[in-house]
Amino acid sequence: MVRLALLLAACIVFPLFAQSSGSAAAGPKKKSALDKTVMEEYVRHLFVWGPQITVKVADAKPSQMLPGFRDVVVTASAGQASQEVTFYVSADGARLVQGTVYDVAKNPFEGEIGKIRTDLQPSFGAAGAPVVVAMYSDFQCSFCKEEAKVIRQNLRETFPKDVRVYFKDYPLESIHPWAKAASVAGRCIFRQKPATFWDYHDWIFEKQTDISPENLKAKVLEFAATKGIDAAQFTTCFDTQATLGDIEKSVAEGRLLGVNSTPTMFVNGRRMVGQVPWANLKQVVEHEIEYANKNGGGEKCCEVKLPSPLNQ
After folding, report:
1. 112 vs 270: CA distance, rounded Å
2. Beta 69-78 vs 54-57: how paired, if at all?
């Protein structure tokens, strides 16, 4: 009886041992991209993001674009530079898809258009134009200076009724020491006399090489005196940085759009980075006008205005 009991015990214990050994042989637990630590490690390797770069992995959400997948947004930042990448992760976390998913029933640039706010922003051109250009720019940037010439001269002269341009402040203060202050000054002028902002825009780009952090305020006051700007009101606005909030909102919006260099413009939501030759920009604008005409006049792209008599 004792021998039989031992045999029965052996029969029971062995399968458990064998099962345990089999699990160990199967290797380590499978990695899942739904694990934030795993995802961060993976994307750091994928994009060569070293320790100097901060990486944040957002919570996974059911994907509206790819049913059955999860959307995981990864944001990398270092100083003023930032980049946002959306991954589509399979339900088991084993597969990642990176790329742009389009819905053919919608404008391919709908996502970008929805992030751009143009109410109470410096602008010129025809109200309700079929083409809207949102320009993210830096007053100390030499490339922005050259692109501004293209925008101000060629664009408004060639398409006076078809394009509206909005200026969006995006000072790269980490490399341009007076750019942010120049944006604050520009917005102070805009608050006093909105139309004069564009005179300031053209002037400060033209005088770019003459300006320094030390003489910026004095130079702007000299300019303001020729344009009927109240010097005391401007000085109070500038010294208290009353318009800083406007700049910060513009920068935050640019980051949301993935802007990481200037100039960056969005033509009806279509991203165009750097100095764009006039011939190229003209072709894109013509295409957008033609597209709008084929689609019943097109959308009022990017225009979200407050119900005010000032917004005409």
Report:
1. 8
2. antiparallel
pLDDT in tens, 187-244: 999 999 999 999 999 999 999 999 999 999 999 999 999 999 999 999 999 999 999 9
Distance of CA 294 to the CA centre of its chain: 29
Place of tokens 């640039």: 109
Q: Which amino acid is at 2?
A: V
Neighbours of 184 (CB within 10 A): 23
The predicted-structure confidence for 86-117, as pLDDT tens digits, reads as follows 999 999 999 999 988 888 888 899 989 999 99
3-state secondary structure of 283: helix
C-alpha to C-alpha distance for 186 and 76, rounded to whole angstroms = 30
Alpha carbon 135 to chain centroid, angstroms: 11
DSSP assignments along 188-250, one per residue: HHHHH-TTHHHHHHHHHHHTGGG--TTTHHHHHHHHHHTTT--HHHHHHHHHTTTTHHHHHHH
**How far, in Å, CA of 34 to CA of 49, rounded?**
19
User: Hey, where are the domains in the chain?
Assistant: 36-98, 110-294
| Distance from C-alpha of 167 to C-alpha of 197, rounded to nearest angstrom | 10
Separation between Cα atoms, residue 170 and residue 98, nearest integer Å: 27
Please, are residues 60 and 71 in contact by the beta-carbon 8 Å criterion? yes
User: To which residue do tokens 């825009």 refer?
Assistant: 201
Two structure tokens written together for 169: 């402040």
Range 110-294 classified under CATH 2.60.40.10: no
Q: Tokens at residue 219, please?
A: 């130079």
Among 287, 122, 254, 133, CA closest to 189: 122
